[in-house]
Amino acid sequence: MNEVLQSILSRRSCKKFKPDMVPQELIDQITEAGLYAPNFMGKQSPVILAVTDKETRDMLSRLNRKYDPFKREDPFYGAPVVLVVIAPKEIPARVYDGSLVMGNMLLAAHALGIGSCWIHRAKETFEDPEGKALLASLGLEGEFEGIGNCVLGYPDMEKKEAPPRRENRLFKI
Ligand SMILES: Cc1cc2nc3c(=O)[nH]c(=O)nc-3n(C[C@H](O)[C@H](O)[C@H](O)COP(=O)(O)O)c2cc1C
Question: Is 68 touching ligand 1 by the criterion CB < 6 Å?
Fold first, then answer.
């Protein structure tokens, strides 16, 4: 089977990570894949925060937990890296744009042998004063909406087969 299609069909979310750091060159390839996602009117508006600094990673996990209905101990499952996607509020298609960046990065990670998962609540994170302060510290001006957190690391769990696809989700006309 075509290699790209094989990656798409075999990717699964990882929900338990080893603490080992992902090499920077792999992180760079994953974020580059994100930056090449299709985007509304060619504006390339989504921004990625590639977080490997433990203190910032832990702060984002703590903020995420604040809004997590399940109050997971660490909503990032121990992953040492979080790629946060944000997009300017002035772009009407920001959620579509940002979601494509997320999708590219999840697939790129898998293609490179790195575990990944989309973790929600990026929106709430950057509505919170602590999240806003992080953006301000980076000199990011204007209003941004958090789209998603792509956590990365080496899996510390067995990969399960993808469940069969539900029926009646494809109509050939
Ligand atoms: C928009 C979105 C939000 C998600 N949020 C979370 C989350 O907060 N925590 C989590 O453990 N998984 C989250 N996931 C991962 C899903 O649980 C996972 O993709 C789904 O169960 C299908 O499994 P698979 O990715 O292994 O195919 C999210 C996925 C998407 C697309």
Answer: no
